[in-house]
Amino acid sequence: MAHLQDLLIRLEPVLVVLAAFSFFRSKSAQRLPALATYLVIRLVSLAYLEVVYNFGGGISATNTPRYEAYFYGYWITYVAITISIFFVVQEVFKRVMEPVPGLRRLGLMAFRWISVVSIVVAVGAVALPNAMAMNTGTASKIGPICVQMMRCVSVMELCLLAFLALSIHSLGRSFRSRLFGIGLGFGLQAAAELIYSAIPASCPGLVSFSNFAQQAVASVVLVTWASYFLVREPEGEGNMIVLPPSSMLARWNALAKGLGQMPEPAMAGAPTGFFLQDIEGVVDRVLAKNPVVAPR
User: Fold this and answer.
1) Which domains does the chain have, with CATH numbers?
2) Largest CB tally within 10 Å, which of 56, 65, 84, 229?
3) Global model pTM greater than 0.70
C-alpha cells in the first residue's frame, strides 16, 4: 500500500496538469474564471512545494529556513485553495441558477450569510480557551484554523453536490453537464476531506489507510474533471434555457423577483378576492413582464 500511495502522490502533479490542460483547452476559462484561478493556484502550490522539498535533498530538520519556507508556504497555499474553492462553489451555483435569476439572488444572499457565520464559528472554535491551551505556539495555531476553514467549505461543497443531484434536470441541464462534473469532483473531494479528518480521532491505527484513500479520491477527482472537459457536452447543454411559465420553479422565481418591488396601487373598495388568487395574479403579471429566459 505504501508503494501505491507513493505512486499516487507522484502522479498527482501530472493529473493536475492534465485537468488544467483539458479545462483551458475547452475554452471554459472565460465562463468559469474562479475554477481557472483554483487550478492555477493548485499548480503553483505543487510546483513551489516540490521545489522547496526536493531542493537540497529533502527537509530533515525543523526550525530551519527551508522548513519554515515549506511550512508557511504549505499553509498559505492551503488557505488560497480554500478561498478559491469557496468562489468556485458560488460560481457553479450562479451558472446553474441562470434560468431563475430571482431564486439565484435569494440563494446567493443566503449562501454568503451562511459562509460568514461558518467562518466565525470555525475561527471561534479554535480560539476557545481549551483549544488555545493545546496550541501554544503561533505555528501550531495556523494549522487548526486553516483546517476548520476547509471543513466549512467542504460542507458547502457537499451541499452543492446534493443540490445539483436533486435539481439539475429541473434547471434544464443533465448529469453530463460540465457544471455537474465540477460539483461532483468537489463533492467527492469534500467527503474524503471530512472522513479523513474524522478517522484519526476515532481510529488512530487507520491513519495510513486514510491517507491512501484520500490520495486515491484526489486522483479520481482530477481524472473526472479531465474527462468532463475533454468530452464535448451534449448539444442541448449549449442551447438557450427556457422554463415554461407553468413550471414550479418559474412560479417561485417570479415570486422571488417580485420581492422588494413596489406593489401596484389598487382602487379603494375594489374586491381583492381570495389571498391565493391574489398571489397567482402577481405571479402571472411578473411572468408576463419578465420571461424566464437565460442564455448559456
Assistant:
1) 2-232 (1.20.1070), 241-294 (no CATH)
2) 229
3) yes
